[in-house]
Amino acid sequence: MEQPNQSYINSLSGGDEAFKQQLIDVxxxxxxxEKQVYFDNLKATKYKLVAxxxxxxxxxxxxxxxxKGYEVAVAYENNLLEGNTTxxxxxxxxxxxxxxxxxxx
Length: 105
Known about the structure:
Layout (H helix, E strand, L loop, with lengths): L6 H7 L3 H27 L3 H17 L3 H15 L6 H17 L1
Helix pairs in contact: 1-2, 2-3, 2-5, 3-4, 4-5
């Protein structure tokens, strides 16, 4: 499985460690909150809202260098707009992977 990384964050920060840490701190704060809202809406079968949650989360997936994960998120978001939860397990595996990564950095 593809692993989260800081390549994109490093390129954005241009060597500015304080800015890099700010970006990481924002992700570490927002990601768990957005993930919880995703699961809450999924449990309530509010697929339009779930698609919106996936849309927000896919940007963090991209920032963490998960190119294949981003593609899964795009496809899953489109599926959800049609009421289809195909790719749910793959997407949630990406979320778990990110959660574990964020706990380590």
